[in-house]
Amino acid sequence: MTSLAEVAEVGPILPYSLLVGHQELRTALEIAYVNEAVGGVLATGQRGTAKTTTVRAFTMMTVGELPVTLPIGATDDRVLGGWQIKKLMQGAAEPEDGLLVEAARSAARMLYVDEINLLDDYLVNIILDVVSTGILSVQREGRVQRPQRVDFTLVGTMNPDEGGLRPQLLDRFGLVATVQPEEDAAQRQRVVETVLRFEAERDDPDSEFLAEARRRDAERKRALDAARERLGAVRYGPGTAAACARLAAAFRLVGHRGDLVLGRASRALAAIDGEPEVTERHVRRVARMVLVHRRAPGDSGTLPEWTAEDDARVAEQLPHSGAE
């Protein structure tokens, strides 16, 4: 396991416990960590709202390293794997793994794509195929590789002002978290104070501020790892399946992927809460993240705003879930 000292040497990554706001994105990442079957996480919000910072802080907290990142403009060789250039120049053909394999073998088991809505369509098709099948098969000029199992959680961020995401890829994300800029002056002040203090003390080995933040990070990691361990013991309550089905029907979801994600995400949330059984309350708390991108099948990939009417529809279908 990576020590706190080793984590500190990676670079100036704001500790997870120092993040201000972004509760929906943090909850989505934690759910996907506790139950990988939930699927990927998409964070959507305007530029400068710390989406990437949140993802990086989360992976640093949970596994002590940054996620494998697929950059915009990545080549086929970099994504799928190719040949080691130095070896080729020496007359030896030695294969080199691509980012998809690296992500599956990484501690985080995560592939992170910033500005995923700007990704080349060809790479989107590759990711769609691998995410849906869990199998990577490379058959290209000069290289044929046996199919191999490649399992990872896909995490993406996007600015909706720069265009939508292909519906086929959008549907592959289990959860979508909307990241809003802080409008409250007191919250904005907290953001500024936190970041400036972090920048001032990040190289100070005696900083009590950072030591306390890392202690809280370690505590949160232990809690999430414990939730992972007890996930299998969490029972679905007698009304869970019916609640998921009612919501899916009320929002006119196509197919059954949304229904299943509602159940899986609710179970992970119950495990995080330390509760032995999934209830309607857990289903209600994950409803927006599961349904927000599944309400308008066949559209251009844009995300209609979640409204008070949507909240009312959820409450109507889950009358025993209590207040938010």
TrEMBL record:
<feature type="region of interest" description="Disordered">
    <location>
        <begin position="297"/>
        <end position="324"/>
    </location>
</feature>
<dbReference type="Pfam" id="PF17863">
    <property type="entry name" value="AAA_lid_2"/>
</dbReference>
<dbReference type="InterPro" id="IPR011704">
    <property type="entry name" value="ATPase_dyneun-rel_AAA"/>
</dbReference>
<dbReference type="Pfam" id="PF07728">
    <property type="entry name" value="AAA_5"/>
</dbReference>
<protein>
    <submittedName>
        <fullName>AAA family ATPase</fullName>
    </submittedName>
</protein>
<feature type="domain" description="ATPase dynein-related AAA">
    <location>
        <begin position="41"/>
        <end position="173"/>
    </location>
</feature>
<feature type="domain" description="ChlI/MoxR AAA lid">
    <location>
        <begin position="242"/>
        <end position="299"/>
    </location>
</feature>
<dbReference type="InterPro" id="IPR027417">
    <property type="entry name" value="P-loop_NTPase"/>
</dbReference>
<dbReference type="InterPro" id="IPR041628">
    <property type="entry name" value="ChlI/MoxR_AAA_lid"/>
</dbReference>
<dbReference type="InterPro" id="IPR052989">
    <property type="entry name" value="Mg-chelatase_DI-like"/>
</dbReference>
